[in-house]
Design brief:
This protein is an alpha+beta fold. The protein has two domains: 141 residues; 136 residues, 2-Layer Sandwich (Heat Shock Protein 90), CATH 3.30.565. It is 58% helix and 16% strand. A hairpin with a 4-residue loop joins strand 4 and strand 5. Helix 3 packs antiparallel against helix 4.
Length: 281
């Protein structure tokens, strides 16, 4: 019942508004009619009140119907987008696997275009993953489990083979594995793609017995704009490689896992991401 009300909140609010407004106007109309003594005035108020109640009735029912239809149209669009993105993501995963197998078959003699192809496939795969997460972020619940930070990094090392990732100490983070994987992938991808970084250092310290601070710091070019805008909205960037959706997804995922993230950067002095999340050393 709670989930139904949450998913149909606009329709429920429209019904509540209609019921309250119709009942209030009807009560005042009947009360006013009871106070009148003249038949002519009584008939005039009766007609005018009937028209007013009829208008509220038609308008209220129309509002409820249109709100419900809008919710159905939104659900169909989200379902189509999620299904479409998932199918494309599956095809891209197969393409990526075939490209990596082909690179292994060439035994180190693969042309530079092969590495660029695999890199572009990885970036497209991440963009689709971000799209899927963004489409289902409000309706899909996140799991709550303990994940070893070193395990997350081990799963991503092959994807960022040209990036040196230095984890100073291990920790257990409480959250959703898929969401945390997306957070780390977006941060590493941002360092490689936009910062041209070669090294990312990860520092961990305990804030208290149940909270951690995890800092991702790279040696890249940094960010030229205002860092307070990162993660809060999409950027109007002339760079075709991205518009900030990765950092936006990262911030929203961290907030949904009862955490937070902020970004610090100085031009030509690297980029730093500071995560506060549940977990322990």
């Amino acid at each position: 019942m709670k989930n139904f009300i949450k998913s149909h909140l606009k329709t429920v609010l429209a019904i509540i508004w209609f019921a309250f407004t119709f009942a209030l106007v009807a009560w005042w109309w009947v009360f006013f009619l009871m106070q009148l003594e003249g038949a002519r005035q009584h008939r005039m108020i009766a007609w005018e009140g009937s028209i007013l109640l009829g208008s509220i009735l038609i308008g209220g029912i129309s509002l409820i119907v249109f709100t419900f239809r809008d919710k159905q149209r939104h659900d169909r669009l989200r379902f189509f987008f999620s299904t479409f993105s998932h199918d494309i993501k599956t095809s891209i995963a197969r393409l990526r696997l075939q490209a990596e197998v082909l690179e292994e078959d060439l035994q180190g003699n693969s042309p530079p275009v092969m590495k660029r192809l695999i890199s572009d496939i990885q970036r497209l795969d991440l963009q689709l993953e971000n799209s899927l997460l963004l489409a289902n972020l409000e309706v899909s619940p996140l799991l709550h489990e303990e994940i070893q930070l070193s395990d997350l990094m081990a799963n991503l090392r092959s994807e960022f083979a040209d990036l040196s990732v230095e984890l100073e100490r291990d920790a257990k983070i409480s959250g959703d594995r898929r969401a945390l994987m997306s957070v780390v992938r977006n941060l590493l991808q941002n360092s490689v793609l936009h910062g041209k970084a070669t090294t990312v250092r990860i520092r961990v310290r305990a804030l208290n017995s149940s909270r951690l601070e995890v800092i991702f710091e790279d040696d890249g070019l940094g960010f030229k704009g205002e860092t307070n805008k990162l993660g809060s909205a999409l950027l109007n960037s002339k760079d075709s490689r991205g518009n900030g959706i990765g950092l936006l997804i990262t911030k929203r995922l961290m907030e949904k896992m009862r955490g937070d993230i902020k970004f610090e950067s100085t031009e030509n002095a690297g980029f730093k991401s500071v995560l506060h999340t549940e977990g322990h050393l």
